[in-house]
Amino acid sequence: VIVRRLEGRGASAHQVWLPPLDNPPTLDEILPGLSPVPGRGLTQPGFEGAGRLVVPLGVIDKPFEQRRDTLYRDFSGAAGHMQITGGPQSGKSTLLRTLIAGFALTHTPQEVQIYGLDFGGGGMSSVAGLPHVGGIASRLDPERVRRTVAEVYGILSRREEYFRSAGIDSIATFRRMRARGEISVTDQPWGDVFLIIDGWGNFRTDYEALENAAVDIAARGLGYGIHLIVTASRSMEVRASLKDHLMNRLELRLGD
To answer: Residue 1's pLDDT is what?
Structure first.
């Protein structure tokens, strides 16, 4: 009788555990209040990472602190290349789609351009229509695969020459000048360029001749705003010569 009469009275006890994460959050939940912004398209007004190569990817669960924070990744500095490792069906392609969509919601097509090589299960095709995406090539189209790698490698070479001729001392200076309109789109139509390879192990096996170009992009690219993102089923698929450059790493569920 006493318990029934006390029910619903007084302040509720502090909830020690947060509700379980049964369903993964969507990007519009991570970036609430999405709306059209003049000059930037659909985005979260006032987002501090807009145009700064900071992109939301998910939620960090901190049970001991009884809180959850948004997981961001910053590609503007030394961690501008990424390796995503996970076993079969662990969500690697889903994470890549989230990354690409996150860039699309926080950056303009002039700030970020993306080229993809889909050696996974075809999951990247769903984002091919975004204005930020220059193209998605599958493993079944060898000519497009070679052309995509050659295109990104050519952008790197041309930008290296542009830095030399224009006296630009760093990629940070280039980004500032481009944002202020001091570098015309005619001179440099690309902003930060991302080459994304979903299925690095398959790429190495099927296109061994292109591996050196990808490694060279990783070795030289960050200084010129060219980024490499790869997924792998096992960490050992990525050789040390490349892994040393992939400082931004996420590990999903691994195989046995």
So the answer is: 64
